[in-house]
């Protein structure tokens, strides 16, 4: 079973202070890039894996989706999503993505934001998503970049010349990593970027887009804290589809 860290009160309270929690998709600097690769959602069936506060679920409905299913392990996150949602076209259900079950050939789009780096059995999840998509259906997700999930130390380091750098440790050694982000002992799964791609291909997906995301000059000008994301990508964005 996936660690239910989002129901840890300390973690949940810290997460609630993040800009992507306060401002929703507008507070996620990668959102404009994701938005640019989304398909036309009018009349489509959508599932959001790790829906959190439900920001994408509501956005998908605003973009014309016929029905959206939001799934999350955290009861606290789902309760927050429900308080923010007044839409009968969105359903929220609690589900551990390690044991994900979805109906066959039901969804046009499967979406996931910053969730898959918590999943140990990613091959099983990808297989479930594949069978749940209609032919031609798309799978778009973001996850923490492997450079970010394999730090040698917590945070940036400074060399003898005063330059910041981001050291990694055992990059090719995939598996569980522990971080202390918002709470102690947060379990993540480190895997190389190629492993994500190969697992998708092995299930039959066709990979169509991969972006090791970094902020634009305008975004950095508006939010100088994003400047460090130029030095190492924190996330990546990937799109794939099930052949028609």
Automatic annotation (TrEMBL):
CDD domains: AdoMet_MTases. Keywords: Methyltransferase, Transferase. InterPro entries: Methyltransf_11, SAM-dependent_MTases_sf. Residues 47-141 form the Methyltransferase type domain. SUPFAM superfamilies: S-adenosyl-L-methionine-dependent methyltransferases. It holds the Pfam family Methyltransf_11. One of its GO terms (molecular function) is S-adenosylmethionine-dependent methyltransferase activity. One of its GO terms (biological process) is methylation. It comes from the Bacteria. This is Class I SAM-dependent methyltransferase. The lineage of its organism: Bacteria, Pseudomonadati, Pseudomonadota, Gammaproteobacteria, Enterobacterales.
